[in-house]
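User: I'm new to structure prediction. If I give you an amino acid sequence, what do you actually give back? Let's try with this one:
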Amino acid sequence: MTTLSETPLASLENENRLLSPVFKGATAQPGVFGFRGMIALKFAQQVSDEARPPEIKFDQVITVAKAGESTLPFLAGVALSLEYMDLLMDVLGDKLSPTGKYFFFAGNLDISKRYQITHRGATFWVLPLDEATVYNELLELFRIEKNDLKKLDTAGKLVAVAEAAANFDEKFEVISFEEGLKIMGPIRIPDNRPV
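Assistant: Good question. You get back a string of structure tokens that encode the predicted 3D arrangement of the chain. For your 195 residues, that looks like this:
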């Protein structure tokens, strides 16, 4: 059975960056490990041994990792600001490849806009997250019917979304990260949303 230590997620686990897991484990697909939860991008300053939530996070994360590989084939999540893509690359840069499918939902983008941004060697489909969850947005983006996933467990749904991402090749307007920073709006503090 695949364990997290055999995947690119191992160092994130060792650094205590994989938080609030809805799912963290092997999938039915041989050699494929899945994670749904949160990735800490910047830790809050700790006082003695008190555990604090991260200062900045990549939330509602959905990703799969393959045993023996050094990069993630698929990653999606939401951050309050597009500028946090820089922190994401600081934390995950060596785990993202030019051929991976990465989806960055930014809380401070105009809800009518969608972009493709290549930043530090990885290409992201950048979308706003209005009211829905990352999971629901991906189902809509990949045209997956919820009924088709009903009989699957959490790991099975994760694999189905990752497989759909692998085949996704829709083109969005291409802009640079710097251009994205110029057009993003102020950070909106969202209500508590489910993972």
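You can read the tokens as a compact description of the fold. Here is one thing that stands out. The chain has one domain: 4-45+52-183.
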